[in-house]
Amino acid sequence: MKSSPHRPLILKRRKLSFPHSDAASTLAGDEPSGQNVGSPKQEEAKPKEHGTNKTEPGNREVPVGGIKIIDHPTLSDAQVVAIPANTDVQSIIDALTAKGKESGSNGPSKFILISSGSPRMERREFKNLFKSDEEHSTAHDKAGEDEKYIGQSSALMEELLSMDGREPEENSSAETTSSVLDNSLTNIQWLGNMSSSGLSPCSVKKETEKENQTPKQKAIKAEEGSAASSSTTSWQESFSERPPYSYMAMIQFAINSTEKKRMMLKDIYTWIEDHFPYFKHVAKPGWKNSIRHNLSLHDMFVRETSANGKISFWTIHPEANRYLTLDQVFKQQKRHIPDLQKSMRGTSGRKNEPQAARRKMKPLLPRVNSYLVPIHFPLSQSVILQPSSKMPLPASQGASETMQSSKPVCIAPKVLPSSEEPTLLPAPIPIKEETCDGELSPFTSQQSIKQDACWISKESFAAALHIKEESDNFHSNTWAPQFLPTVSTKVEPEQLGEPPDIVLPAPPAKQKRPFTALKSPSRSKLDTLVIKRQERQEMGRSRRKQHLALPSSEEPVLLLQPTSRSESCTVGNDPPFATDTHPLESTSQFSCSQGEVIPFKSAIKEMFCKLPISSVPSKAPITTPAPFLATTDPWRLAPFVKETSDLLCSPVRTSPTSLISLQGNLDILGLGSTPLRPSLCDSPQLPLLNAETNDMVSGPLTSSPATSKQSSPELQASALPENHSFLEGLVLDTMNDSLSKILLDVSFPGLEDDNLGTDLSWSQLIPELK
DNA sequence: CTATGTAAACAAC
DNA sequence: GTTGTTTACATAG
């Protein structure tokens, strides 16, 4: 009852009913908590083994190839496996296998691997061992194993391997199929940072077991900080410390851990507790509130109600869902981390080194920024981003490490299609991605000076990347159909190094439903009902989902400008873009040739949602979609716009440009939970990128015929016809850990204002526009 | 300024 | 009491 002075009273809050409760059918069938969801609770059972495990009390060693297996001092069901530096994986496996046999079913379920030697190898190898991570594997239920990877402290790595698959966790990774051992390998859970011997008492039981991973980061931290000295402390901390994941990320992990990709709130809580002991044991109860808050806050989380309406599940909007799982993330981290750590440690003074850039890297799984944050990219931005030509892998590969290391692991929801967006097509368009792991490297590697910039840029970069993807999706989804002919997006995948563990989702689902109910009428099909979805408007300060609120001041920038510059917007040098003109906004807004400015921001939401009630409605109820909007899918924008006219300076025009702008806006707006961040332009990187751009373009990308990819101004001007608009950029695919360059070639004959008359116009392409 | 985290008020069950 | 929403405020970057 306290009334907070600050907080306005909520006069009324009304739940939206869903039209489709029928969808529930699906639900009904499904049990709420879902099979998958994991019945974390059940897991608890594990302990049973203990008794027997103890079979080998004391530190008994089971030497196998120099590998020592010792009972964990405090964990009854765990054993510590000391692995000599040069031990090969097979030996380890053999040792564990032998141990496992020896112990029988009752044996220890977990093994903590400690290697003093070259941890890296182990990982790698293990990694190899681990088979695929496909998530979809039903595995959840049973498979329980998770891998836990401990960071590699240079000193030691530890891994817990759960031998038995008992744990029901759903880790994606779990591929039950494999032998027990495999499973165990497969599931790596996080180990805390146990620094050293890691034998310290660990009260955490199952937690340990499950998948929490302690990010290496932690490990790193540990090292840095208090570190290891007291193993106990570190050990405990590992479990007690808060995971480096944001709530948003954890929720995603939880939901994606289930087969159906949906989870009830309660199960989410449970999953998190199970996987991150911190929340079970240390966190204040308020964390649940935070979870709920995040669910409500982020558009990517969609609540679906069972047919009967009694059960509500939380799902991740397909468009936004990267299907990340803890496992995947973990694996990724694995890859990257080593490098990072190296760099970090190795160079105690990181700064000095070129590596400095890295240093800046965010924690792999930063709770922060980019992590999991949906990034919306306005088309324009994409334009802005220019890949550096350098991207070529050369050094990169070698550098791959660097790259990776440098690369923050971002888990960003794929696209954040704005709720508005109707994204139907997943990837109809031919999109190629080229991921160059090495790509970044150039940046990093290059000049030291720049590196910093690079760094920064990187982050932004990452964002940009994501954005790009979005844009792709964006295009592909919404536009693709219409544009297909004309538009070609390419992303050329070049993965240097590793195959993506993560499978990019081309989520099947995508097609299904649009993020926002608003848009797609069709979505009705969905089994479940989507309850939420609204666009967000801006909110003043409060953060209700981020919207794209752009400062009114800023005006939309033309994506494709008629003027030579238009394309040139490219970052590079264009002062305008890059600099002030529309720093961020530029990305978000597009100006109509007319000069109209369309600020998207919050207005949009309102428009969509029409949420009279709350000033800042976050998610619009699906049901409410405006008719017109619904009809046209994606682009009901225009109409939309009109209404919003208030906000918009001018009514939307069908003019091609306008469309573009809209779209861009949409993106931005749309889901945009995340606001555009500082545009790429701003970031220092740009320059770098630009510079190279040309080359790049010419490179692989160019392969595509008609489409010219260059975004670089020069090129544009010279080479490109006005009609063509190219969006070129790099995409960082967190999932794959790779960088992708994407070229989006949107060429219309007459796109630009100047040319409008000429050939095709957007409107032509898209009837609706007219 | 943004993204996040946290606390809290409130609403609807 | 639980689940969801939405504010408000705080903090880190």
From TrEMBL:
It is found in: Nucleus. Coiled coil: none annotated. Residues 242-335 bind DNA. Pfam families: Forkhead. GO terms for cellular component: nucleus. Residues 41-59, 204-213 have a biased composition (Basic and acidic residues). This is Forkhead box protein M1. It comes from Podarcis lilfordi. The lineage of its organism: Eukaryota, Metazoa, Chordata, Craniata, Vertebrata.
